Amino acid sequence: MKHFLFVVLLALSLCGSDRVTAADESDSLVLLVKIIDSTDDPNVRNSLMRGMLSGLAGRRSVPSPAGWKELSQKLATSQNAEERELSLQLSQIFGDQKAVQRALAVIQDKDAEVGSRRTALRLLLTQKNEQVSMTLESLLDDPNLCLDAIRGYASIENVTAPSVLLGRYEKLDAVMRRAVIETLATRKGYAQALLSAIEEGEVVREDIPAHVARSLNVLLGKRFEKVFGVVQELAADRAKLMEKYKAMCNSEAMSEADASRGRAVFAKTCASCHIMYGVGGKIGPELTGSNRANLDYILLNSVDPSYDVPDGYKMVLVQTVDGRLLNGVVAEEDARRVVLKTVEQPEVVILKEDIEARKVSSKSMMPDGQLEQMKPQEMLDLIKYLRTTAQVEMAK
Q1: What tens digit of pLDDT does each residue of 292-323 get?
Q2: CA 20 distance to own-chain centroid
């Protein structure tokens, strides 16, 4: 049994590793296929297939290992639903066109389990499947997949994306609108259409988050600044701004501030990147245990978030060969791929062969000038919330 476990762990460590050749990986995949085929325990089979999927995340058209075709046919009739789904996902990575067609059918089947539909959509987008790109517009009418479909337009360039997304923009809720704006800031053609919509008043300037403005500035340069204005840069006079906000946060003003309203401001401006009281994103540092009682600490990190950025939180800009722009922080990296944590998604896998340019910024992912963009009362309410010692109800 110990020998069996050692072999399994070794094979999984080799699968997708940056320390081995393609031949080594092929051998490890063949070994895993044999091990999966040799056990009757669906839990073991599922664990091994999840490990294979993890090792192959982001990969496209990996050569099918010997024995997989026969094994996948057997697993396709399994009574275990997870087993069937995992084998289907692996078959897609191995270039099985029948598996691709089954996945497309699952996506379109409104009676199928939502999680399965989302997984199938995500995997086909990773595989750069043009057929799934053409189905995205129809999925916008499906409440269960609308958000996934909006973000899907970022994965594969689609000339219809700007007109389709902006045509629906006015009727979408705040979450979906934000996703549309973030998606249109990933490619130059999309960004040009978004800028035109801002010029024409179809999208208001206030709907453009600071991190999106950064991306648009990279893609469009001076043309964007002419319409939007100069994107806020590093605080030139940190001490002066600190003094200004400390004066605003006097005891009288803070006594009238409302932490519940502040939580709503936090949800809108900070929660996409920071966790506080168990809620939020994992891009920036968790704030629950930070030095939040100290007003100077809060103001320094808000006024000038790039003042002292640890390497793990420096922003990385990645331009792909097909024209997509991503910015985030590096979560993982090996010889084959980079995994970014972005505001839009907790994990974006980018193959290194797909990267055209990559730049590490000295800036934090947290945009400069956050407080400057808030109304004075919003700023005070946010500071009040950040200094709480226990969670409060969110104002409606």
Answers
A1: 777 877 787 777 776 666 667 778 899 999 99
A2: 28
Q: Does the CA dihedral 299-392-313-325 come out positive or negative? A: negative
What's the pLDDT at 260?
Answer: 93
CATH architecture for segment(s) 311-364: Roll (2.30)
Say which amino acid occupies 163.
Answer: S
Element at 364 (helix H, strand E)? strand 355-364
The alpha helices in the chain, defined as continuous H runs, are: 2-14, 22-38, 42-55, 68-75, 81-93, 97-108, 114-126, 130-139, 146-155, 161-168, 174-184, 188-199, 210-220, 222-228, 238-248, 251-256, 259-269, 295-303, 376-386
List beta partners, residue 355: 320
Quote the crossing angle between the two packed helices 146-155 and 114-126, to the nearest 10°.
10
Torsion (CA) 376, 378, 380, 382 in degrees, nearest 10: -150
Residue 207 · residue 180 · CB < 8 Å? no
Place of tokens 């189905």: 135
